[in-house]
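Bumping with the actual sequence this time:
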Amino acid sequence: MILVTGATGNVGRELSTVLAADGVPVRAVVRDPARARLAPGVEVVAGDLEFPESLASALRGSHAVFLLGGWSDMPGLLRQIAGAGVEHVVLLTSRCVIDGRPDNPVTRMWLDAEAAVRGSGVPGTFLHPSGYQSNALRWLAQLQAGDVVRAPWPEVPIAAIDPADIAAVAAAVLLEPGHQGAAHELSGPEPLTPGDQVAILARVLGRSLRYEPLSDQQARAELAATTPAAYVDAFFRFYSDGEFDDSRVVDTVELIAGRPPRRFAQWAEAHAAAFTQ
């Protein structure tokens, strides 16, 4: 049995679908099973990663776990996982940890999650993806209101990855031998700026969209409304100060999943309906 956490999220949903389609016994942890809409064949159980003890029943009989990092008690989660006899943890963090500065709060969060796995005694594999193509969904409200997308960091390209490609790699890592102890950097096939992404969305959606950069001051004000101040500062260190280069393209998806990563245009075409609701 493989336990998938974050099963209603961008990566977890894709992963549980892939595993179930391959006939792999898969159990999905969600906060509210009554509201979860997952693929046929996926066993859905209740659990909340903010409360490690809530995973006790979900872990029973699980030999591997796909785990999201960043929870408030990662050591507690790993104690529960280790105590259940799990043999392999695949942890999803970020590639900002690669040569990243540990005094950056976002980088520190992911490093602490990885340290919890290493300290647990459970063999682990770390996935280090670039930013997600699905982050374009943050523009949904703007696109529903008009044809202008306002976003910061106009000169910062990101080799964003389709969450389905992360899931394909995760499935291979969970099912194939030889990945325990490894760390895999993942990226999409092309570095794109926000303006590039908006131009692609315009073509896919058949709309006259326009990208309008936000100044750092404007972006700080908007982020402050929804994001803790320490993380706002961390993002500005990443992208305004140039501390994190997320534009690098690597071939890991093709090497492990056996197919090239999908371009942003392919992701946009597959999710076009989300922008028209």
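The tokens above came from a reply further down the thread. The chain has eleven helices and nine strands.
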